[in-house]
Amino acid sequence: MAKKPETATRIADNKKAAFNYFFEERFEAGLVLEGWEVKSLREGKVQLTDGYVVIRNGELFIIGLQINPLHTASTHVSPDKVRTKKLLMHREQIKRLTGKVEQKGYTLVPINLHWKAGKVKCEIALAKGKAEHDKRDTIKDREGKREVDRAMKDRNR
Q1: According to the UniProt record, where is the region Disordered (predicted)?
Q2: pLDDT tens digits, residue range 71-102?
Q3: Which of 44, 108, 115, 139 is deepest in the core (most CB within 10 A)?
């Protein structure tokens, strides 16, 4: 029998990022975690909305990713739920990202966390901040789409 390709299972999404930023490019990075953090991720106890990515000494780190410890965590481990976590990417990709981030207006934003081949991956985006009028346009488009969907649903009844 042929083996099915494994699909990526989402753990958490950063919906706020799509509202606040335009995404230029997306990248996938590995995440260095402790054992209790992996167990908490399996339970879905994570918050990604306040997270952001910084580059220090040629390495990527995610700050503000909040992983809440389980109540059944081990007694010999003292969990820190807002610990700075290291992201794993190829050196050439990090150098390219460093050059882009140093340009005016670009930042690195975590978009989601997902499982891939039994490992936790973080999708990050090279992003540019939206102006206030762009955010208003986003809201207007979203509400317009909602109105159309509602009208189509009522029509099909």
Answers
A1: 131-157
A2: 776 666 777 777 888 889 899 988 888 888 88
A3: 108
- Residues in a beta bridge with 109: 125
Greatest mean pLDDT range, 15-19, 26-30, 77-81, 102-106 = 26-30
> What is the per-residue pLDDT for 1?
47
Class of domain 9-130 (CATH, top level)? mainly beta
Check: CB of residue 109 under 8 Å from CB of residue 124: yes
Residue 3 confidence class, pLDDT cut points 50, 70, 90: low
- Give the residue among 19, 51, 55, 45 at the shortest CA–CA distance from 132: 19
CA 10/CA 33 separation, integer angstroms: 17
Sequential DSSP letters for the chain: -PPPPPPPEEEEE-HHHHHHEEEEEEEEEEE---HHHHHHHHTT-EE-TT-EEEEETTEEEEES-EEPPPTT--TT----TT--EEEE--HHHHHHHHHHHTSTTEEEEEEEEEEETTEEEEEEEEEEEPPHHHHHHHHHHHHHHHHHHHHHHHHT-
Asked if 59 and 31 count as a contact pair (C-beta separation under 8 A), the reply is no
